[in-house]
Amino acid sequence: MFENFKVFETDFAGRPLVVETGKMAGLANGACLVRYGETVVHVAATASAKPRDGIDFFPLSVDFEEKLYSVGKIPGSFLKREGRPSEKAVLTSRVIDRPIRPLFPKDMRNDVSIVCTVMSVDRDCSPEIAAMVGTSIALSISDIPWNGPISGVSVGMVDGEYIINPTAEQKKASRMAVTVASTGSRIAMIEAGADIVSDEEMYNGIMAGHEYNQKIIAFIKEIQAQIGKEKFTYDAVHASDEMQDEVRAFALADICKALDTDDKTVRDARLKPIYDAVHEKFDEKYPGQEAQLEECLYKTQKYVVRRWLLDEQKRVDGRGMNDMRPLAAEIDLLPRVHGSGMFTRGQTQVLTVATLGPVSDQQMLDGIDDEEFKRYMHHYNFPSYSVGETKPSRGPGRREIGHGALAERALLPVIPPVEEFPYALRLVSEVLSSNGSTSQASICGSTLALMAAGVPIKAPVAGISCGLITEGSRWMTMVDIQGLEDFFGDMDFKVAGTKEGITAIQMDLKIDGLTPEMVKEALEKTHAARNYIIDAVMSKAIAEPRKELSKYAPKMLTIVIPVDKIREVIGTGGKVIQKICAECDVKMDVEEDGHVYVSGLDLDNCQRAITIIDTIVNDPEPGSFYNGKVTRLMDFGAFVEIAPGKEGLVHISRLDVKRTEKVTDVVNVGDEIVVKVLEIDDKGRLNLSRRDALIEIDGLTPENEISDAPRGPRRDSRDSRDRRDDRRYDRRSDRRDDRPRASNGFIANTNQPKE
Hints:
By secondary structure, this protein is of the alpha+beta class. The protein folds into 4 domains: 6-227, Ribosomal Protein S5, domain 2 (2-Layer Sandwich); 241-312, Arc Repressor Mutant, subunit A; 327-541, GHMP Kinase, N-terminal domain (Ribosomal Protein S5, domain 2, 2-Layer Sandwich); 555-718, CATH 2.40.50.140. Strand 26 and strand 27 (646-651) form a beta hairpin.
């Protein structure tokens, strides 16, 4: 039945890579099933038979679809099925899209769709890498015009050694996580996160990935040679040479004048009448080809910008190749938030707001990887007004998710661990104005907001972009590219890091790839630019994190308790923890490992809650003082609760510095008093004294003398009853736990029906 079924196999970083074709998705233009270890990803590539009308771009879509059955999970949504893609899936789709897009014909308008379906996940074998390789194979063996193949690998660094496609355990110890995609000769895509590594370490890691990619490319070419289809012909959609020459001759001089400004608004205003004049002159001559006329205008602007850069070393705003736009940094723009910072780069401006919350505010994740919670979140918003447009907001798209993830990756290495800073953190970057490099401005603004909020980050992080213009063997780079240079250039090479090293990289290309020399130069230029931004601009606004948090930020304290004491802190039905939260006006989170996080607006209240917890899990030491509440009165004294479940007796003789006739003469139920722990008797009962606290803390002079001889054992009917109740509860618990369990984990019903 499957006469075209083929299996191809190679070694991929020490694990088998098996490619199956000819069995599944027979109606797609190209499809394959990639088995990498026990990770299985199906990839299908399809193309429309005819071009899409009325568009001036190549319509490519890439979808990385995570199926929770691949990791044995049932979706947690109400519908119990996968809904919108996760952020991780969106980011993976972008990573696959970026290296393959430049290899399609520029003038093709046929829709092309790539669908990567994750069907099984082996933690040691990345489904993202399997999907990228599978995409390259599916396109290579299909009849879709494409100038591939490519290959992609992940590169880690453990103990100074570079590791291709590190395992799950190796990833935990790795100082970098770099995804490198390559063609047969060039580096096509870089996506990186790193723990402040040097330029040299990053460069060597990129090259290690590029070199290994050549092995997989050779493997894909072998598959293509055996089963690859002939590429179909398509109707090229582009302006004729005659039209291009006429439009350029007509508009070139005016376009040169229009582009020669550093103000985007002025430039757009100058260009509008040129567009109107071109359409007025040529619409009648070229009826129905308005889109082609727009293309000619675009190509003319591109020609001008690239000629200025390559031939005259001139940038549209008059800067030198290594000069940055005017920069400004500010903090504390919003008085009631926990931290705010604004970074301005020319006409690009981003305001970032930092919000701190209890650890319980961390984001829950429902994906196919091991990460279930995310404590640090970064969100990026790009409203239409930032580019002078009027589009309604419809939530974050792929671009917004990608830029937010880049900023998040850039700052994560400097965020203090939860043990040192027990907070969940959310940063929101609002793009107020955009003329290129908003993602890098958001990184700078986020650093400012974090330091203003008092987050003890390890070091300031700055972001900068590097552009590229190529023509044959000629090429040149320029730092801090604005929108026009990004639009008409060949590269947007974004690098973020501290003065010491790199924390994140994202590279977008419009050409088929970079040479190693281009990568090295981009790293050198961006490092110098980062240092300047940090020293000359950001440090002037705030040099180091504030020592104190905002008064509006919750105060957080942490205590670690024995695991076997967690039940006592929570209490039956949560009564104890609820009581502590209510009395101290705090929030509490108790982790399974014994970490207890206490948060509230008042630091003293947080400290009081910590003291109560410490009292619950540890026996009070004789000689220590506590704030307690009178719970009940007896003729012989008052019982005082110093913590939930911790109650002691203040004998009537120790209620005051003078003789006390009746207990109610001094205290009543509900009164809060300070007591000293005198002793813990052989039955674990607390003997307390208000008298000693008044003498030692308040400095009062005793008016009578009392005997310090030990008293005989007291009888407390309620205490005895409580202990009986505890024993009864324990017996019930023991009986419950000892009931036989069925093989499926349910408790078996041992009750027999009565005769």
